[in-house]
Specification:
Layout lengths: L8 E12 L2 E12 L3 E5 L6 H8 L7 E6 L2 E2 L5 H8 L2 E4 L11 H12 L4 H14 L15 H13 L5 E5 L7 H18 L2 E5 L3 H7 L2 E6 L2 E6 L1 H5 L4 H9 L4 H5 L10
Parallel strand pairs: 3-8, 3-9, 6-7, 7-8
Antiparallel strand pairs: 1-2, 1-4, 4-5, 9-10
Helix pairs in contact: 3-4, 3-5, 4-5, 5-6
The chain binds adenosine-5'-triphosphate and magnesium ion (MG).
Magnesium ion binds next to helix 1.
């Protein structure tokens, strides 16, 4: 295996191809995900964003290529080894997919009960800790149906965080939320990343949110990454597909090109 600086690149995707029958979704895709930052993946509907993150989590197997997570190629691993690596990931699904028949606390405790041998007391302690952290104190005994959409998102995040993952993947976290809630979810992602140093991958259709949140933006187009760079570079790249995608989303390129107008200064 090649050596690399593990403190820098957390995930390295090399020449990954994937087809479903006649449909070539990923065509020799390369992408490096820097550690401890927010990388946002953008691209049209059906371009393969969800397929890509499923590969990163080892839920889909590529036809070709390597996927290095902390320097280990998960493509070459046994399923048992992959399960070990998968435990490094937390995932927040688009609709937060909570179990409706479980209380909020049981929802959050679920990954710990499934994947660890922690005592009941220790699990309760960790669940309480996450509830406090996400401003959900006192809701542990409620049912998901009793919560607002934004609270359900936070419960989903609490559940994704409870195992202390090194990686968090968010698949369209703000789709279907009103602008105020969407902004809250963005802030939650940013705070989570800053507080825990989690390497975060966000799939997003929301370009305004992307320019607020991302340290790095990667655009998927025709099975490859056409650009992967900091928001300023992406906004001024002049790559036609990229400009067109940003413009079509209603975000003015001029507004995101200025360093004081939204892109993170530390990006
Ligand atoms: N398991 C599968 N079997 C067959 N085709 C699949 C499978 N998963 C995804 N696809 C196809 O691969 C393509 C990419 O799908 P994917 O879900 O990754 O798109 P996406 O970029 O996430 O789109 P969206 O923004 O709408 O969520 C689509 O044409 C989809 O139908
Ligand atoms: Mg998708």
């Amino acid at each position: 295996m090649e050596t690399q600086d593990p403190s820098d690149v957390a995930i390295s995707i090399r020449g990954v191809s994937k087809r479903f029958g006649a449909l070539e979704v990923l065509r020799g895709l390369d992408l490096e995900v820097p550690r401890g930052q927010v990388t946002t993946i953008i691209g049209g509907s059906g371009s393969g964003k969800s397929v890509l993150v499923k590969h990163i989590m080892g839920l889909l197997h590529p036809d070709q290529g390597a996927i290095l997570v902390d320097g280990e190629d998960i493509v070459q691993m046994s399923e048992r080894e992959r399960t070990r690596v998968r435990a490094k990931f937390g995932m927040l699904f688009q609709h937060a997919a909570l179990f409706d028949s479980m209380t909020v606390a049981d929802n959050i405790a679920f990954p710990l009960r499934e994947h660890t041998r922690l005592s009941r007391g220790e699990i309760d302690r960790r669940v309480e800790d996450k509830l406090d952290l996400l401003g959900l104190a006192g809701t542990g005994r409620k049912w998901p149906a009793e919560l607002s959409g934004g609270m359900r998102k936070r419960v989903g995040l609490a559940r994704a965080l409870v195992t202390s993952p090194s990686f968090l993947i968010y698949d369209e976290p703000t789709t279907g939320l009103d602008p105020v809630l969407a902004k809250q979810v963005d802030e939650m992602i940013g705070e989570t990343q800053e507080r825990f140093g989690v390497t975060s991958i966000v799939i997003s259709h929301d370009m305004a949110s992307t320019f607020r949140l991302a340290h790095r933006i990667a655009m998927l187009w025709q099975g490859r990454i056409v650009i992967a760079a900091d928001p300023q570079t992406v906004a001024s790249s002049g790559v036609p597909q990229v400009d067109e995608f940003i413009r079509a989303s209603g975000v003015r390129l001029e507004s995101v090109r200025r360093p004081d107008a939204g892109a993170r200064a530390d990006a």
